[in-house]
Write a structure and sequence with these properties.
238 residues, 2 domains
């Protein structure tokens, strides 16, 4: 261990200056001259055994440098792997509803009716504020939402096929995540299979591609909950 007086000399000035102090060719001579009585005796570790670079290497700066290097290597590795991950993602969930398609379609073709069955409502996100547009059941109609817990986003219809399907464009976090989705209705005897899909292109950002790996687990459960709510509401309205 270095004597306390020597440590105080090394640590003179702000931390940014310590490294420069230690790398100064005259630092060892100064310490030997200023603190001759505080040097360890024979048989102990002597200040003379430590060149300036050695003092630095054995101090906290070495640990900091190792930590920074480790972080840089980790970030580089994640980025490298990210470039080879899929650029697109796809989420899909299906439910069978015991009702004809024409009874289901009104619930999916009017955004003002979506809060009756989707999972993304103020019940889940109490601080969310929703704003509907003037139109509701036509291509281009949509709504937007804001909230600390829900994030910010907007959705609009891109296609409407009465009794068959709807298509939409989803903008999440002010253009950071863009995606396209559909809800299709296919007759299965007296019942209808409703399928909800959503997919997007994550671009060339390697870290966004990492995020894409989790899209199914993030969105899928909400799709499932929404479709089950739609099923319960339609079947109860018989």
């Amino acid at each position: 261990m270095l004597p306390q007086g020597v440590r105080r000399a090394i640590n003179e000035g702000p931390p940014a200056q310590w490294e420069a102090n230690l790398r100064s060719p005259g630092m060892i001579r100064r310490l030997l001259a200023d603190f001759p009585g505080s040097l360890p005796e024979s048989g102990s570790q002597s200040l003379r055994d430590f060149p300036a670079d050695g003092l630095l290497a054995k101090g906290p700066m070495k640990t900091l440098k190792k930590s920074l290097i480790a972080v840089a290597v980790l970030v580089a590795a994640l980025a490298g792997v990210g470039f080879v991950l899929p650029q697109t993602y796809h989420v899909e969930r299906t439910v069978t509803i015991q009702a004809p398609a024409d009874r289901i379609y009104p619930y999916i073709s009017a955004f003002r009716r979506w809060p009756e069955w989707i999972a993304w409502t103020t019940n889940k996100y109490p601080d969310m504020t929703v704003k509907f547009g003037d139109a509701d059941t036509s291509v281009g109609a949509g709504y937007s939402w804001t909230g600390k817990s829900s994030g910010n986003g907007a959705i609009r219809f891109t296609s409407l096929e009465p009794g068959k399907a709807i298509g939409y464009h989803l903008d999440f976090e002010n253009g950071q995540y863009l995606s396209e989705g559909t809800i299709t209705l296919v007759a299965e005897g007296a019942a209808t299979k409703a399928t909800w899909t959503n997919g997007g292109n994550l671009g060339n950002n390697p870290f966004s591609r990492w995020f894409g790996l989790f899209m199914d687990s993030l969105m899928g459960p909400d799709f499932e909950a929404g479709l089950q709510n739609l099923k319960a509401r339609v079947e109860a309205a018989k």
